[in-house]
Amino acid sequence: KLNHSLVLNLGDITPAEVQVDGHVQGLLVRDGYAFVFHHGGQVLVYDLDTERFVSSYYLPGNKSHCNNASFGTMKYSKKSQFPMAYVSDCTYDGSCYVYDLYTDHAVEVQRIFLTDTPVPVQCGTGWFVDEEAGRLCMHWNGKVWDFPVPPKGRKTVRLTVEGKEPSGLMNNPVVHQGACAWQGYQFFPCGFAGEPTYMTVNEPSTG
Predict the structure, then answer these.
(1) What is the CA radius of gyration of the chain?
(2) Which of 26, 28, 36, 14 has the alpha carbon at shortest distance from 68?
(3) Is the dihedral of CA 22, 23, 24, 25 positive or negative?
(4) Secondary element (H or E) of residue 99
(5) Could you report the per-residue pLDDT of 64-83, keeping only the tens digit for each?
(6) How many CA atoms lie within 13 A of 53 on its CB side?
(7) Among 11, 85, 99, 182, who pairs with 106 as Cys (CB 3.0-4.6 Å)?
(8) Which of 65, 46, 66 is nearest to 56 (CA)?
(9) Per-residue pLDDT tens over the stretch 112-157
(10) For residues 152 and 76, what is the distance between their CA atoms, to the nearest angstrom?
């Protein structure tokens, strides 16, 4: 059983005039800022230190589920505020959008596709970066694979799991959302309508 406590109610600090579209999905926190991703591509940004709303914008060219968001290992350029952000499509083609993320806008800098998945995706793929290991991880259909993080200069990247052994397995292949890695472990929360809420924790070396 996981214990939790309320840190901040974002609804209390979101201005009434801000139109919020779609359900809350992925979440990124870095340097005192929270980026809340919504189904359909809206991003709401909050300053956690001052507990205030910062901005609302839409991801360019992304109307997907956005149910998994992860910071990567490197910034896109010297002017970048944060490391590149990896956002899962999940529902359409199972791809991963990569953004140069700012507190008031985002620029798409790369798109990663898995060539093995059917389109439309039936059991959504999820992408996340293990920053400590320097690996791009992808879970699909109850299995987890990892790849080297693609170089940032490539606009389109196509990966395959053909002939590649998974680095981990999940006991229950129900749709997992919000996956992340920390201190050698991978965490796969599951929050899906009609299903119990739980979290699968993997140690990649053992599955």
Answers:
(1) 17
(2) 26
(3) negative
(4) strand 96-101
(5) 888 899 999 999 999 999 99
(6) 17
(7) 99
(8) 46
(9) 998 875 554 545 678 999 999 999 998 877 788 899 999 998 999 9
(10) 7
Are 40 and 81 a contacting pair, CB within 8 Å? no
Query: For residues 86, 132, 25 and 112, what is the CA-based torsion angle, rounded to 10 degrees?
Result: 20
Provide the 8-state DSSP code for 39: T
Alpha helix ranges (H) inside the chain:
10-13
Q: What are the Cα distances from residue 26, in Å, to 49, 90, 138? A: 20, 11, 15
Q: Is the dihedral of CA 70, 71, 76, 79 positive or negative?
A: positive
Here the tokens at position 145 are 């694979």
Q: Quick check: 175 and 190 in contact, CB under 8 A? A: yes
Nearest to 33 by CA among 55, 11, 15: 55
d(CA 137, CA 147): 6
pTM metric for this prediction: 0.88
